[in-house]
Specification:
Chain lengths: 179, 200
């Protein structure tokens, strides 16, 4: 997901960036622009919000790179900032509570008992917090403990959101397991 | 037969088996329906990971670099203001020391000295949190910026008050220092609360 050349030279790049070298800071941006935006776009409701998160994340990365001590991967460090910013954006936008979700399928003008969506559309349709938990857990690989910490919620909350999200995805995708 | 719930299936994917899921594991080993459901869950997660990477429509670097530069300029201005304040504070201290000799103003002078100490303590607390290096959301940043602007305004008033020899100067200065302490306390709260929330 990130520029292979930059990743193999990450240490040298960080050292330069920590001195405030503008070229190194821009190189960091270019290396992680896509994965950060992707994470933000998967969590946030709109592309505009995701672009704001992208900008906020790298603004913070550039300000804080001096404090990065190489403990854990550089991408892991950047990703935690991006996740935090994306979740803050959700809170700022007063995300819909999961209970507010209308489980009915979007109107199609006819009754579809087994409406099938593609995965992108189904993911997009999940409530913000559920979608964030699914993405952080199943794609980014965060543990429930880490997600709870990022969200300021409990581990149980993270687990139940993940289960409810998968229940909904299963229904929307019309998945019938074959025995 | 009662099959496993989605919560149990999701739990069974976690590394290390939760003690509460031992019976669920037993059920899974003997139930082809739940095994198929768990496979579907694994496949769905794999499909999520395989979704295409979404990319921004425009390069944000110029905007970020502009913001960084603007912040540097603001910081330089703030440092200059702080340096001015430090100079003025030293003048004020001289006034306080001088006034200590006067019984009628001794209480006010002592109160100003204490307020300045309190203010310094709060600034050191703030420095220890390195607020400039922490993740902050737009709302928190906005609140912090407004508080910093008010502190800046008070600093200017303090400088003006120190140059003045009007009656009631000490009372005015004491009030300003106390207001400054209140704002610094609020700033500490904003940053410490934020830092705790994001686990930094």
């Amino acid at each position: 997901m990130t520029d292979a050349y930059l990743l193999t030279n990450a240490d040298a790049l960080v050292v330069k960036a920590q001195t405030g070298d503008p070229a190194a800071l821009e190189a960091l941006y270019k290396a992680f622009e896509s994965p950060v935006y992707n994470l933000a776009r998967r969590i946030c409701r709109t592309a505009e919000d995701a672009e704001d998160v992208l900008q906020e994340t790298f603004f913070e990365v550039c300000r804080s790179i001096g404090r990065y001590r190489g403990e854990g991967s550089l991408w892991g460090w950047v990703r935690t900032i991006a996740s935090s910013k994306a979740l803050m954006r959700l809170r700022r936008n007063r995300y819909r509570d999961t209970d507010e979700l209308d489980d009915d399928a979007p109107s199609t003008g006819r009754q579809d008992f087994h409406l099938q969506m593609d995965l992108e559309a189904a993911l997009e349709r999940l409530p913000e917090l559920s979608r964030a938990v699914v993405w952080l857990h199943d794609v980014e690989g965060y543990t429930h403990e880490e997600i709870a910490g990022l969200m300021g919620k409990t581990v149980s909350f993270s687990k139940s959101q993940l289960a409810r999200a998968h229940g909904r995805l299963r229904g929307w995708l019309g998945e019938v397991p074959t025995v | 037969m009662t099959h496993l719930s989605m919560e149990q299936l999701v739990g069974l994917r976690e590394p290390g088996l939760d003690a509460g899921l031992a019976s669920a594991r037993d059920h899974l080993n003997s139930c082809p329906v739940c095994q198929a459901e768990l496979d579907t869950l694994h496949q769905r997660a794999a499909r999520l990971r395989a979704l295409p990477t979404l990319r921004p429509t425009r390069n944000q670097w110029t905007a970020i670099a502009t913001r960084l530069e603007a912040e540097k300029r603001t910081r330089r201005r703030r440092y200059a203001a702080i340096a001015g304040l430090a100079l003025a504070a030293s003048v004020a201290m001289a006034v306080v020391v001088h006034d200590l000799a006067k019984p009628r103003t001794a209480d006010a002078s002592q109160a100003i000295a204490e307020a300045m100490d309190h203010s310094k303590t709060l600034e050191r607390t703030l420095e220890r949190y390195h607020p400039e290096a922490r993740v902050v959301d737009g709302l928190t940043a906005g609140v912090a910026e407004r508080i910093e602007d008010r502190i800046g305004a008070i600093d200017q008033q303090l400088q003006a008050a120190q140059m003045s020899d009007q009656a009631g100067q000490q009372k005015l200065m004491l009030n300003l220092w106390r207001e400054r302490i209140g704002l610094l306390g609020a700033l500490v709260d904003v940053h410490v609360t934020k830092a705790t929330n994001v686990g930094l």
